[in-house]
Amino acid sequence: MRRVALLLRNARLVDPAVKLDRVADVVVRDGVIVEVGKDLAIPKGETVDLAGKVVLPGLADIHVHLREPGREDKETVRSGTRAAARGGFTAVCAMANTTPVCDTGSAVRFLVERAAAEGKVRVYPVGALTVGSAGEALAEIGDMLAEGAVAFSDDGRSVADAGMMRLVMDYVKRFGAPVLAHCEDAGLAGRGVVNEGAVSTRMGLSGWPAAAEEVCVARDIRLAELTGCRLHVQH
Q: What are 27's strand-pairing partners?
């Protein structure tokens, strides 16, 4: 088997997980790091001097929109994961606001299969909290987890009804999964296009008050305390 070697010299290696921060050389063979040290050499292969550059573990983006299925004109699993890889990201969490919404086990399975066939990085599906992300009925949480979902979100929309959000958190908590909340009170946000304040008034633009998000964040934090559910506030 042909083994491709790559030597990265004089790189600053940073990995907080193991408290690593030092300048060293790295040998990579067939895409796998096989040696780290000083003054390393390889008999054949490519050598790249990374003096002044940083080498770190692959990054994870926990909020991406792959748009497949339904809006392939915007993004696909293939294009989105290729872009992630180019930017140094080796894992992404794909939001559920596709067309149709990813709110069933079969929808999650579709994404998992597409990622296996076309993905350039690891793809972790995020399932919807409610059916169609409409905030009215609990989605198939258990089925989605069984097919590979790692978290749940109605991203792009807030679950407006506090009682429904409590039900969602109570249910998701039983599986140990987190809720990723899009915190926005649509009634307060209205048709705002910029931050509400002197500038929006002077320019004659509809303002978006900070309270539109603060009210919802406060509510969801309180519900997380009540239910014991893990909560991540997005954006």
A: 7, 35
CATH code given to domain 5-55? 2.30.40.10
Please state the pTM of the whole predicted model.
0.85
Query: Which of 130, 134, 72, 63 lies closest to 98 in space, CA to CA?
Result: 72
Single-letter amino acid, residue 136:
E
Fold match between 5-55 and 59-233?
no
Query: How far apart (Å, rounded) are the C-alpha atoms in residues 94 and 122?
Result: 10
Closest CA to 35 of 16, 13, 54, 53: 13
CA-CA distance, 68 to 30, in Å (whole number)? Answer: 31
The helix (run of H) or strand (run of E) holding residue 117 is: helix 105-118
Which CATH superfamily does the domain covering 59-233 fall into? Metal-dependent hydrolases (3.20.20.140)
Q: What is the dihedral of CA 156, 160, 166, 169, to 10 degrees?
A: 0
Report domain extents, the chain: 5-55, 59-233
With beta carbons less than 8 A apart as the criterion, state whether 86 and 96 touch. no
| pLDDT tens, N- to C-terminus, the chain (235 residues) | 456 799 999 999 999 999 999 999 999 998 889 999 999 999 889 999 999 999 999 999 999 999 999 999 999 999 999 999 999 999 999 999 999 999 999 999 999 999 999 999 999 999 999 999 999 999 999 999 999 999 999 998 999 999 999 999 999 999 999 999 999 999 998 899 999 999 999 999 998 899 999 999 999 999 999 999 999 999 7
Task: Say how far apart CA 30 and CA 20 lie, in whole Å.
Answer: 24
